[in-house]
Amino acid sequence: MAQKIYRPNVAAIILSPKYPEEVEVLIANRVDLDNVWQLPQGGIDEGETPKEALLRELKEEIGTNDVEIIATIPNWVSYDFPPKVAERMKPYCGQRQKYFLVKLKPNGKINLNTEIPEFKEYKFVKMKDFYKYINNFKRPVYKGVLKYFREQGYI
């Protein structure tokens, strides 16, 4: 059996500037898929640190990297793509992600009209409403990561 190859990736749980008084998470609706909401994420380029990739990806995907990093999950989280996605993402069978918990600074302005738009809309949702939007294959990964940050007392 061939060895599985996972794409190195970063993902951001972006809290609104109201944090810590209110815990609201940014979710974004993908341009290429109907009603698929997710957290901003993206690949790590050769020679790039996860933090550098995070800041670059946020700028590319939501038009700002004006964030304060609160915490990062210590381990890497892997998941396999569903078959349709795996076909598009060859040679990768999934992603190996480093998650960051960040807060949008009060002056941070989100602009989805980026060079190559990935999202058509975004919103900040309360934690209790988060899973009303996230119903795709990433849901188990998100649950584990959010559980970790909750247990650490961040959210």
> How would you characterize the largest beta sheet?
5 strands, mixed
- Provide the CATH superfamily: Nucleoside Triphosphate Pyrophosphohydrolase
Approximate shape: globular
Runs in which pLDDT lies below 50 for 5 or more consecutive residues are none
Q: What name does CATH use for the topology?
A: Nucleoside Triphosphate Pyrophosphohydrolase
What is the correct CATH architecture? Alpha-Beta Complex
What would you call the structural class?
alpha+beta
Percent helix, as a range, is 10-25%
Please, how many domains? 1
Describe this structure in words.
- It is a single chain.
- With 155 residues, the protein is of the alpha+beta class.
- It has a single domain, classed as Nucleoside Triphosphate Pyrophosphohydrolase, CATH 3.90.79.10.
- 23% of the residues lie in helices and 33% in strands.
- It contains 4 helices and 8 strands.
- It has helices at 50-62, 83-88, 130-133, 139-151, and strands at 6-15, 24-30, 37-38, 41-43, 67-72, 77-80, 94-104, 119-126.
- The strands form 2 sheets. Strands 1, 4, 5, 6 and 7 form a 5-stranded mixed sheet that branches. A 3-stranded antiparallel sheet has the order 3-2-8, with no helix packed on it.
- A hairpin with a 6-residue loop joins strand 2 and strand 3 (37-38).
- The longest helix has 13 residues, at 50-62.
- The protein is globular, with a radius of gyration of 15 Å.
- The model has no long low-confidence stretch (mean pLDDT 96).
